[in-house]
Amino acid sequence: RIKNSGKNGSILFNAEMNGSVNRRHALEQDLRRALQNNEMEICYQPLVNTESTALHGVEALIRWNHPRYGRLSPAEFIPIAEDNRLIIDIDRQTLRDACLHVKALHDAGHPGLKLSVNLSPVMVERDDFVDHVAATLEITGFPSDCLQLEITEGLLLNDRSDIVEKLESLTRMGLSLAIDDFGTGFSSLSYLQKFPISTLKIDRSFVQKLHQKNDDACIVGAIVSMAQGLRLQIVAEGVEHVSQFNYLRSLGCDVVQGYLFGAPGTMEELLGRYPGLVSSGTAAPE
Ligand code: C2E
Ligand code: MG
Ligand code: MG
Ligand code: MG
């Protein structure tokens, strides 16, 4: 509903609508060129071990440095890339480059550092998906037991035996699977037994309201105890305040991620934040 129903109000509204349609159209056009011109950049966000506050690993998060619109969030362009299937190129390139970047950190004296990469359902559903991941590990020399792939609940919604088989092939290769944005998708939890999942990432919408709403504390507490019962690792996203961190630690949450420990940054920024990365094994938030 438009609040201001006067003439000016509706003209403004239409102009805005038109602007966002034009922008989406422009982004669609620009996406192919962006990949060829290296306008995509991988940022890394620290994943921190809750107990020790040592660096557990990093999550690769793609950014688009658009020549006209500046740095774009994946939330804006991933849906477009999924529609025109360029997401396949984006996800392949991100997986390969992130493996190379983190392999370099392993070689520089930090073996065992974990890498988490987001994958679109469009990518996972392709017939060549498992072979492609295997080939990427081979080409990059990245150790499979350091790689975690993040998928969303939607992919697991229907009982697709081909998806179960694919995910089992991946875990046989030694890598692990996480459910991203856990708690925002579907109410059925039966898929947790059907699929070889090792990690649940609690969506930041629950974490962010921890200090305001008792309901969210109950939901987070229930997710953590369920995960413990199923022997799943639990990662909390969007941790911004010490109070949230302390609460999650008291629940027994394994790993945390959020602005409290660092926003996603370029590999250079990550190394600046965690200078220990190239020599010693531990790091702490500033
Ligand atoms: P995600 O995988 O759930 O990633 C976490 C998002 O939360 C990131 O947004 C991150 O910047 C943000 N975040 C982390 N800590 C905090 C915090 O403390 N406070 C707040 N407010 N936000 C925080 P980002 O980077 O914009 O990415 C959005 C989504 O785009 C990701 O959500 C992921 O689903 C998708 N994505 C990112 N990179 C890729 C990619 O290479 N391939 C695919 N298929 N999807 C990607
Ligand atoms: Mg993710
Ligand atoms: Mg997430
Ligand atoms: Mg999320």
TrEMBL record:
Signal peptide: none annotated. Residues 24-278 form the EAL domain. This is Diguanylate cyclase. It comes from Pseudohongiella spirulinae. The chain holds residues 434 to 719 of 719 of the full protein.
